[in-house]
Amino acid sequence: MKKILATTAVILAASTGIAAAQNWSAEIYGGASLENTLSYGPGNWDTDQGTTFGVGVYNTSWVQGLEVGLDLMATSVDYTGFTTGLDSTSLMLNARYAFPLGGAAEAYVGAGLGAINLKYVAPAPFGGSDTVAGGQLELGLRYKMGAGNLFTAVKYQSSFADAMIHGVSQDYDNTSVIVGFSFAF
């Protein structure tokens, strides 16, 4: 009898864990960081198109359609006509809300707050980095495919204050177009 009760308890615990785990999703994405104009020091400088890569983990158990999670994103752009560039790495606490479009498609909007590390990529001794607070907005579409979603989105990130790198101010605004896949677990 004890073995049956113990086995039943293990099965119930495992099924409860599996049910809870189904409220989580992970995603991976990549794309293009669009051309932009950024101020560095006293001037405004154009950037070339760059790259974006990111991962995220979200929980959907709070409110129907609402996802809350962490988003880690990296971008890299070069200043047009120069051998210098700006890399960013951000970690955002992000919330997204999905709107069904019918069938397997849905749209979503999101907003996040967090930290952005900005790295001015230049020959020594001019390069350097600083971490500042920032935020992001996201607008996307996704299509359900099995246990996951294929998605595309536009992400806009901005720092709330300029980074200070060797006493020179560096602003940050970035618009990225991304494509990725998320899967539930």
What are its keywords?
185 residues; mainly beta; Porin; 8-stranded antiparallel β-barrel; two-stranded antiparallel sheet; 1 helix; 12 strands; disordered N terminus
Question: SSE layout and pairings?
Answer:
Blueprint: H1 2-21, E1 24-33, E2 36-40, E3 43-47, E4 50-59, E5 66-78, E6 85-102, E7 105-121, E8 128-145, E9 148-159, E10 163-165, E11 168-170, E12 173-184
Antiparallel strand pairs: 1-4, 1-12, 2-3, 4-5, 5-6, 6-7, 7-8, 8-9, 9-12, 10-11
What does this structure look like?
The chain is built from 1 helix and 12 strands; from the N terminus they run αββββββββββββ. By secondary structure, the chain is mainly beta. It has a single domain (24-184), classed as Beta Barrel (Porin), CATH 2.40.160.20. It has an 8-stranded antiparallel barrel with strand order 1-4-5-6-7-8-9-12. The protein has a two-stranded antiparallel sheet with strand order 2-3. It has a two-stranded antiparallel sheet with strand order 10-11. The chain is elongated and about 50 Å long. 24% of the residues are buried.
